[in-house]
Amino acid sequence: MPYEMSRREFLQIGSLLGASLLASSYWQAAGASYRGGQPHRWVRSRELPSFKRPHHLDYIDATDVDPDVQLVLTTMQGAVAQERPAIYVWFPTNEPNHAWIDTLGVPYTEHTDPWEVIRKHSSKVKGVIVYDPGLMDTINVATTLAGLQRAVVASPQIAQELSGEPYNLPIIDDLRGRFTSKLEAYQWQYDHLWPRCNHDVLTGISPSQRRSLPPGIPPYYTTLAQVTTHVHDSSNRGVYEFDLTPFLGGEAVYLRFDDAFTDDGWGPSVQHVTVIADGQTIADFQPFTDAEAQYLYDSDGSSRDGSHRFADGNRYFVYRFVPPQGTTSLTARVEMWNEYKVSATSTTPPTSDVLLPFPRFRDYIVAARTMVFWLDPNVDAERELFVRIMSEVDPYTPYMGWFAQDVAGEFSGTQLCSEHSVYVLAADFFDNGTVFGAVRAPMPPRRPPTKPTLENKIYVALVMSEGDNIQYDQHRMRQLWDDPNRGKIPINWTVNPILFEAAPTIIGYYLRTATDNDLLMAGPSGAGYINPTPWPDDTFRIYTHATYRYMHRLGMNTVYVLNRVNGRSVELSASERRAYIEDVKPEGIMLNWDARTAMQLLDGTTPQGTVRGTGNAADVLRAITEESQGWDGSSPLFLSIGVLAWNVTPTDLVNTLSTLGPEYQIVRADHFFELARQYYQSRG
What we know:
Elements: H1 7-17, H2 19-25, E1 57-61, H3 67-81, E2 87-90, H4 101-104, E3 108-111, H5 114-121, E4 128-130, H6 138-149, E5 152-154, H7 156-162, E6 171-174, H8 182-192, E7 202-204, E8 208-210, E9 222-226, E10 238-243, E11 253-259, E12 269-277, E13 280-285, H9 290-293, E14 296-298, E15 303-305, E16 308-310, E17 316-321, E18 330-337, E19 340-345, E20 355-357, H10 362-368, E21 372-373, H11 380-390, E22 397-401, H12 406-419, E23 422-426, H13 433-436, E24 458-464, H14 470-474, H15 476-481, E25 491-495, H16 499-502, H17 504-513, E26 518-522, H18 537-554, E27 558-561, E28 564-565, E29 568-569, H19 574-584, E30 588-594, E31 598-602, E32 606-614, H20 617-627, E33 637-643, H21 650-657, E34 664-666, H22 669-682
Parallel strand pairs: 1-2, 1-3, 4-5, 4-6, 7-21, 7-22, 22-23, 24-25, 24-33, 24-34, 25-26, 27-30, 30-32, 32-33
Antiparallel strand pairs: 8-20, 9-19, 10-18, 11-17, 11-19, 12-13, 12-16, 12-18, 14-17, 15-16, 28-29, 31-32
Helix pairs in contact: 1-18, 3-5, 3-10, 6-10, 8-11, 18-19, 20-21
């Protein structure tokens, strides 16, 4: 049996051997088999699973495919990929339909009938795992079983169809009635399946998704109140009273909360709701309590932050109140703040709170034989099991997927993972990972353009957010990259260096098609999303050494770091700064997403720019203008401006920033840092 080094050994030895030796064995992946009954291991010359290059792909557009059939497709895709990828499932996202499959260079046949693809590949799987529609988390348990059994996951109805002609797939396991709660299901999985799973990758995705409704507020709602100016600081927090009497007469009254400005991420935050009918209190609750549950009609994509419920962008939430018969006066008092839009109706609206299977990323989970779970880091019992799982993996293990509760989950989940030396790859919408992880791509080095001459100007570095998110790198970034105005001004694009393994085709495409005004920057916070300060000191340099290796392979020399503790930005400690400077060796560091920007020279050698975050193109211009107030032209000024990639395009930036005067110069981050170093070192 060949010697299998641990992740820790590989990372420590690899930092000494150098990139050339690592590259020689880089693409040699272990076969997909178990060894002596031990958890599946990948050869440690790479961090993520590798799959055999596909000879041919069967392509299906899943736009109009029922989610339960999508679930069969993606789990079959993963089961087949355990031998060799052969299926490509496209979901409607940001990039054009054939953008990436045409870039792969693999021949494919396009199908319009998903059952045709299922029939073609049914002989390559061993059977069906049936999930329990009464407990959607069994979809995740079934997915774990599918990876171990080389099976597909299906609803009871579809499983019955698959068991007959022409598929003839036996039912291997039926999870209906097996568990009474989410936690019981995941505890059973941990006790019985985890010992057999691949421990080199952790995966966490939601088992379900809400039904999609048409965007916008239905016309039968009446607007009661709406913020008309931007509020990002809770300064309008108060108790607001709404007369709901005009909506009496029906079965119930529905009170809806939306984001008044959908492009900047500061929607309504609700702390307390009281409803009074004819002088009597009929509802009195705080969000995320048992008292709220009976009134929450549609939670949509709303999230939790502490004890308040918020909804940003196109998300919303709706409460339903049933007044006593004969009520003549109905009033709601709501403690809330930020950019709210409140409306009401007596018409029963449709609800998005109808759960459907979430099919995406399951090909990767099944093919890699990982254990997939959906444990909320903000719920004590679930957090405890999450921690137990992480305590049994090596330092610098990836957690691929995402967290419950969106932003609140991101902050607490990323910190929790960091505390256990686990890095995060946002991947729950990362599609066809088995295909992208199997196809190599050329990554020619680019010669950087000449640095501008240092002058007494205001130098601006625009840093696009979200690059740690490999599903963003696959979807939204491709849409932004195809913007016809990309390349007209310098933009610094954060990307995840782990794409070198996860999707060489994607990162290779960006490298090959970048203009001189496009700079790919690592992070946050390097090779995988982490918060440095919570990460244990004794393993932190495993992370920074790995970051250097992946950045070096891609020719990157700048890094963006997000360092949060309990949801708040903090500075890097002296030891963390030293690790980045000595191990990563960047031209400079961009730090955090704050309300102000600043520049300093770390240890006299490495510039660090604190990033001022913005939510839209107008915010970008406002931030630049405000940060340059008081500049007298006697010395250069350096401004690091964060650009929210979900809301801002290159065209937006070109049009908005065209008003800047000649004293401003937008630059690439490598030039930005070189100029800053030159200036600060000249001052002694």
